């Protein structure tokens, strides 16, 4: 029995449905990555699971309870979310930012307890941001800043951590740095990690479980061998992918790809051509 | 001063310094004025039961006036700080987002239809007007998807304010009350009396206390709405309470002094340069700085063209406009 799953989830803004009748289970103590084209509903799904965007119908269940009926502070002790490129921390120091991760445990004016300070120092330590504790978040490089935000999520001491494209705007080395940190947290502390990733090969390399979305519905969910296939990628991204093996990790990877030129293109072409014909 | 050095000065020192500045400013404001008074007179007015003209003037005219300046300055600065944090918009200010205009319109309507209204009724009307003005601005700002873009909010604020000021002027003209209305709205602190303060001050104190209690929540909310939800904040409730606090502070200020733009805009920005961006520090520091600033503006208003009064709103605007342009130019990184 998994701790977190969704049942018949419909999510949309106004009239437009972005996620339709979605049933998904998030495996415990595993790394799950969500992939899909732009506008496929990846971020929206992540936001619904973390109660940031309310669903139109259906439920998200954590530990047998509908999350919308659960106390939001209790939830914040169970799951942390790092939104996509958080806005500027506007002058907070890294230490201050991370200390806000203790918010779900605090009452009243929120003096930090000894335990809070220990957890904050630990979070800074594992993310390698201890040196920046007294520096302003805005003065850091992209990778350092992202690690600072991850430290805040860690200070929340949750078993589940959600991240929306944690590697966006980072260079290759910093991307790997962030992903390896998350992997380490998963292996050493058995935290459940769920993230939206754009890079397919990174998604396959770090994921135990992958969810491929298209138009708000699951095309395929399973381990990377099941999801990183020519067929699935054709459906999800409309690409003709050549799948090979990473020589170091032996995980499947997309070596090269072409845009599919088939039925899809013809359909698009058909409309203008016929309308031109009508004018004649 | 570099960022590190600035951070190394403890907050307690900064707030203590601002307290010293504030007390000095208050004494200066009490001593200077159209009527000749000395430090000794002020001291006598506070301590002795003397019945000289000077002492009576200080007690009945200048003290209430400066007390009003203190609380209105603090209220407007704190309201501005909350609005900037809440909307993540560096241009937010009670005067720019429809609160002041709404309170003004309510004031004119009340004077027209309830000519015998007492001060308390008028204060309540100002609250209602401020709330309606703000809701109109946010309603228009949020009507389109993508919501609170700083530019759209400011434009909506300008449009709604113009509309509400037009209502105030129209009502004033139609009921031949223009003079009365402008006595209120442009009068500044002239004629502030103890009975008025007895109504206004408790409301402002409650507002500022609530702001202090919620300051930590405001910092989290100012980071991003999503972060706030993720950290377990009940954002709808917090935003609702903060909205009430803003209306309380701005409404009370308008009831006492009328129009007073720019203080709520300027002071929080000056304060951020001193204490950073944590609202636990910004709120108390804004209250102190706002109070000192208002005392300065009012003292200037009373003295530069003595014995005539220069409207304090004009003084604040003259000091505030260049600052406003500076923020716009800076692109609002805050």
TrEMBL record, chain A:
Segments forming domain ABC transporter: 4-240
Pfam families tied to this protein: ABC_tran
Localization in the cell: Cell membrane
Membrane topology of this protein: Peripheral membrane protein
InterPro entries found in the cross-reference section: AAA+_ATPase, ABC_transporter-like_ATP-bd, P-loop_NTPase, Siderophore_ABC-ATPase
Keywords: ATP-binding, Cell membrane, Ion transport, Iron, Iron transport, Membrane, Nucleotide-binding, Transport
GO molecular function, one term: ATP binding
Main subcellular localisation: membrane
Protein's name according to its UniProt entry: ABC transporter ATP-binding protein
Organism: Neobacillus paridis
Automatic annotation (TrEMBL), chain B:
CDD domains: TM_ABC_iron-siderophores_like (cd06550)
PROSITE patterns: PROKAR_LIPOPROTEIN
Residues that span the membrane, as ranges: 12-35, 67-83, 95-114, 120-141, 153-175, 195-214, 241-267, 279-296, 308-328
Primary localization class, coarse: membrane
Subcellular location: Cell membrane
PANTHER family: FERRIC ENTEROBACTIN TRANSPORT SYSTEM PERMEASE PROTEIN (PTHR30472), SIDEROPHORE TRANSPORT SYSTEM PERMEASE PROTEIN YFIZ-RELATED (PTHR30472:SF65)
Family designation: Belongs to the binding-protein-dependent transport system permease family. FecCD subfamily.
Name used for this protein in its record: Iron ABC transporter permease
């Amino acid at each position: 029995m998994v701790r977190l799953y969704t049942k018949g989830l419909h999510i949309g803004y106004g009239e437009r449905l972005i996620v339709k009748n979605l049933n998904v289970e998030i495996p415990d103590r595993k790394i799950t990555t969500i992939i899909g084209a732009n506008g496929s509903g990846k971020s929206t799904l992540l936001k619904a699971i973390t109660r940031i965007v309310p669903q139109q119908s259906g439920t998200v269940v954590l530990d047998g309870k509908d999350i919308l009926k659960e106390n939001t502070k209790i939830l914040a002790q169970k799951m942390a979310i790092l939104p996509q490129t958080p806005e500027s921390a506007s002058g907070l120091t890294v230490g201050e930012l991370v200390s806000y991760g203790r918010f779900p445990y605090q009452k009243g004016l929120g003096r930090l307890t000894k335990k809070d300070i220990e957890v904050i120092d630990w979070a800074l330590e594992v993310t390698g941001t201890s040196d920046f504790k007294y520096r302003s978040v805005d003065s850091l490089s992209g990778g350092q800043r992202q690690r600072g935000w991850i430290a805040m999520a860690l200070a929340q001491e949750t078993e589940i951590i959600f991240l929306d494209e944690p590697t966006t705007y980072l260079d290759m080395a910093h991307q790997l740095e962030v992903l390896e940190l998350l992997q380490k947290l998963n292996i050493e502390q058995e935290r459940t990690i769920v993230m939206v990733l754009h890079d397919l090969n990174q998604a396959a390399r770090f994921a135990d479980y992958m969810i491929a979305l298209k138009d708000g519905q699951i095309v395929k969910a399973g381990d990377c061998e099941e999801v990183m296939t020519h067929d699935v990628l054709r459906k999800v991204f409309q690409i003709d992918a050549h799948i090979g093996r990473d020589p170091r990790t032996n995980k499947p990877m997309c070596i090269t790809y072409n845009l599919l030129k088939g039925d899809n293109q013809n359909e698009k072409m058909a409309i203008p051509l016929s309308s031109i014909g009508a004018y004649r | 001063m570099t960022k590190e050095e600035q951070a190394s000065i403890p907050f307690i020192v900064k707030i203590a310094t601002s307290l010293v500045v504030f007390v000095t400013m208050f004494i200066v404001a009490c001593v200077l004025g159209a009527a000749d008074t000395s430090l000794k007179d002020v001291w006598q007015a506070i301590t002795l039961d003397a019945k000289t003209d000077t002492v009576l003037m200080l007690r009945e005219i200048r003290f209430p006036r400066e007390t009003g300046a203190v609380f209105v300055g603090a209220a407007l600065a704190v309201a501005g700080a909350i609005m900037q944090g809440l909307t993540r918009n560096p241009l937010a200010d009670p005067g720019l987002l429809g609160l002041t205009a709404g309170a003004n319109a309510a004031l004119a309507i009340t004077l027209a239809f309830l000519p015998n209204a007492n001060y308390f009724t008028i204060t309540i009307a100002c609250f209602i007007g401020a709330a309606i003005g703000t809701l109109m601005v946010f309603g228009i700002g949020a009507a389109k998807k993508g919501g609170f873009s700083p530019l759209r909010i400011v434009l909506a604020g300008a449009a709604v304010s113009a509309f509400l000021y037009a209502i105030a002027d129209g009502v004033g003209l139609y009921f031949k009350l223009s003079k009365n209305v402008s006595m209120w709205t442009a009068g500044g602190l002239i004629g502030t009396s103890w009975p008025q303060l007895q109504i206004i001050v408790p409301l402002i104190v409650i507002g500022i206390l609530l702001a202090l209690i919620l300051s930590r929540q405001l910092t989290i909310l100012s980071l991003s709405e999503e972060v706030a939800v993720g950290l377990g904040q009940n954002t709808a409730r917090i935003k609702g309470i903060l909205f009430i606090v803003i209306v309380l502070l701005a409404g009370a200020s308008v009831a006492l002094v009328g129009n007073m733009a720019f203080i709520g805009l300027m002071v929080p920005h000056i304060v951020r340069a001193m204490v950073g961006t944590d609202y636990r520090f910004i709120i108390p520091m804004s209250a102190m700085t706002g109070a000192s600033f208002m005392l300065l503006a009012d003292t200037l208003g009373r003295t530069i063209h003595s014995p005539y009064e220069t409207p304090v709103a004009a003084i604040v605007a003259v000091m505030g406009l260049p600052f406003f342009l500076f923020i716009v130019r800076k692109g609002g990184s805050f």
